[in-house]
Amino acid sequence: MTIKPIIFLPDPVLRQVSKPVERFDADLRKFSDDMFATMYDAPGIGLAAIQVAEPIRMVVIDLAKEGEAPAPHVFINPVIVERSDEPSSYEEGCLSIPDYYAEVERPATVRVTYQDIEGKPQEIKAEGLMATCLQHEIDHLDGVLFIDHISKLKRDMVIKKFKKLAKTHVPASAPKL
User: Fold this and answer.
1) Is 86 a catalytic residue?
2) For the stretch 89-108, what's the b/e string if a residue is b when 16 or more beta carbons lie within 10 angstroms of its beta carbon?
3) Residue 141 to residue 126: CA distance in whole angstroms
4) Which residues pair with 102 in a beta bridge?
5) Are the beta carbons of 135 and 107 closer than 8 angstroms?
6) Is 102 within 8 Å of 83 (Cβ atoms)?
7) Tens digits of per-residue pLDDT, 138-160?
8) What is the pTM of this model?
9) DSSP for 52-97?
C-alpha cells in the first residue's frame, strides 16, 4: 500500500467534479487500499479520491474508534437519493483543510446508492456521523468543500489563510492532525 500525498486548499483540483468509475479491476482495488493507507496515516475518518488528485467518484470511510477493529467502507459512484428534513450539526474538519473545524448543519439521515469494490449495486441508509461523513465526502466528488456550508465571512477568512500559507509553505505530505 502506498500513502498518497493529500492536496490542500486552495488547490483548484479540489473544485473539480469527479467522473464516474467505469472499470472495477485490480487497479481500482489497489487504489482503494492506497486511499485507506493514506486516510489512516493522516489520520482521518473519510477520504475522497479527488483529495489525492484522482478525479473519480470514489470515497473511503472508517468510523471505528481508537482501539476498535477497523471498519472500512468503500463507496464507488455514490449518489444521495434521499435526505431527511431533520437537521443535524457536527463539527467538521477536512484533511485538505488541516487544523480548521466548523459546525456544519446537514440532513440527519441520508439514503445513498453506490457500487462496492466489485461493481455490485448497494444501498445504505445512514444516520449520525456516517450520514455526515457520507455527505461531506460526496460533496468533495462534486467540488464542494465543507467550508461552503459556513458563512461567507468565515469561508473567505479560511481561504485567505490557506492562500497565504500556500505561498509561503508547500507541505510535502498530509500533516498529522
Assistant:
1) no
2) ebebbbbbbbebebebebbb
3) 18
4) 92
5) yes
6) no
7) 999 999 999 999 999 999 999 99
8) 0.91
9) GT--BSEEEEE-PPTTSPP-EEEEEEEEEEEE-SSEEEEEEEETTE
